Amino acid sequence: MKKFKGLIVVIIGIMSIVQLSAQTLDQGKKFIYYEKYKSAKDVLQKIVAAEPKNEEAIYWLGQSMIRSEEASVKDISAAKTLYQTALNGSGSNLIMAGIGHIELLEGKIQDARNHFEAAISLSQGKNISVLNAIGFANGNPDAKNGDPAFAVDKLKQATLLKKFNDPDVFVNLGDAYRRIGDGGMAISAYQSALLLDPAYARANYRIGKIYQSQGRGQESIFMEYYNKAMANDPLYGPVYENLFTYYYETNVIKAVEYFDKWIANADEDVKSCYNKAALKYAQGLFLEAISKANECIAIEGENPYPSLFGLKANAYNQLKDSIKVVENYNEYFKRQNPEKITSAAYVEYAKNLFKIPGSEVQAGLMIDKVVAMDSLESNKVVYLKTAAQYYESKKMYKEVGDWYNKIVMIKKSPSKYDMNTAGLNYYKGGAYQQSIDLFTLSASKFIDDPYAYNMIGKSSWAIDSTMEKGMANAAFEKTIQLGLTDTLKYKPQLMTSYKYFVAYYANILKDKNMAMSYVEKAISLDPGDAEAASYKAALLTNKQTTAPKQSGKKP
Question: Which of 390, 384, 306, 378 shows the shortest CA–CA distance to 352?
Fold first, then answer.
C-alpha cells in the first residue's frame, strides 16, 4: 500500500511538472504574441535550461531572438546555433522549419526551401505547428525573403487538418495574402481567425493595418478595427505602438496618449528608451530630446541603440547645427544596419554637408549613392534637385548643369524642361559644348521648338565668337524658320537670330544688302529696338557693325 501511495505521489509530481512546463511555455508564446521578445526569451530560456530536449520550447526561444525588427546578425547567429544543436540531437521537424527560417534571413533561399520541404515530408504534411512555422517564415509581410504563395499553400493545408483550432494560423495566412497583394483574401483570413477566437486582438489589428496602408482617408475605418483590437485585449502593445507612430508627426497629444499605453504594455529595453527621446522630439523639445538620447547612450554602454544617433542628428538639424548633424549621422551610419537606413537620412546628411565648406564633393557622392539605392524615378529626381539647388544658390551654373543633366539621364522620358534647364545652365556656366549637346537632344525630340535651336546657335556663337567659321548659322536659320510660326511668342529668339545675321553678313561676308535685309526684319518685328536702329545707321554710313553682345540670361 505504501508503495502504491508513493507511486501516486511520483505520478502527481511528474504531472505537476509537465503542467507547469506547459503553462510556462504558453506564457512565453503569449509574450511573443504581444511582441515582448525580451520577456519571452527570459521565460523560454528557463524552460530550455530545465528541459534541453523540449523541441517546442527551443523553437519558440529561437523565434524570440529573431522576430524583433531590432534583431541583429548576432541574434540570428545565436538562434541558428540553438536550432542546429537541437536538430543534431533530435531531428525535430519543427526545429528543421526553424532552420529554414534562419536561412531565409541569411538570404539562403534554396537551402531554406530544402529544409521546409524536408520538414513537411518527414511530418507527412500533418503537423500544424510545422506548417504554421513555415507559413510565418515565408508569409511575414515584414520579411525581405521568402515565398508568400508557398506560405498560402501550406497554411491553407494546416487549416484543413483534423483538430485545427489555432487563430494564429489564419492570421499568418492573412499576412501571406497581404504580402502577395490580395487584401480581400487577407481580410477574409483575419476574419476566420476571429471566428475561432473573437478576442484575438492581432486579427483586428492586421485588418486595420490593411486599411491604414490605403492612406489617411481611411482613418475612420482602420481606427474602428484598432479600437476593437484594444477592446479585445488591452494588453496588446503593437496596436499602441502603431498609433504612436501614426500620430507622431501630426498629433502630439494623441501620440503621447498611445506612447504611454505602449510603454505600459511593452518590455523595458533600448528601444523604449529611444522612444522616450523621440517623444521629446515630436513635442518640439529638441534640446531635451538630445539630452534624453545622450542619457540612453550612456546607460547602454558600448552598443547603444543606433537610432539614438539618428534622432540626435534630426534634432540638431532642427537647431540648424550642421556640424553636429553630420557628426551624429556619421555615428548613426557606422552603427546602424544599412538595410534600416532610409534615403531621407542620407539626403539630410548630404544637405548638411553642402552647408560645410569643403564638403561639397562628399555631399554629391552621397546624393549619387541615394539615387543608386532608390528604385523610383520620381524620388531620384528629388534627390538630384537637392544638389542642383545648392549649386544654383551659389550661382555655380556649370555644376547646376551637371546635376540637371543627371536628371535627364535617369529619366525614361526626360521633358523639354529637363533638357533645356540643363542646357541653359551649361550655357550660363560657359560649358558651351555641353549646352549644345543638351539642346541638340531637346531639338531632336521637340522638333518644332525654336528655343532649342536658338540656344544651339547662341552656344555655337560663344565658341565661334568671331563668326569666321559660321558655326551658329544653321541653328539660327532653323530658329527663324520655326519662330515665324508665332512671331509674338518667339520674338526674343527671332531678334537674336536677326541680329546675328546682320553682323555675320556685314562683317564676315561683307554683304551689305543681306545685312540690311536682316536689319529691316528686326525693325519690323520690334520698331523700338535701339540696337537694330544703330545697326541700320552703321550700314547706311558704311561703318563696321558691332556684333550684339550675348547675355547669360534666359533668352
Answer: 390
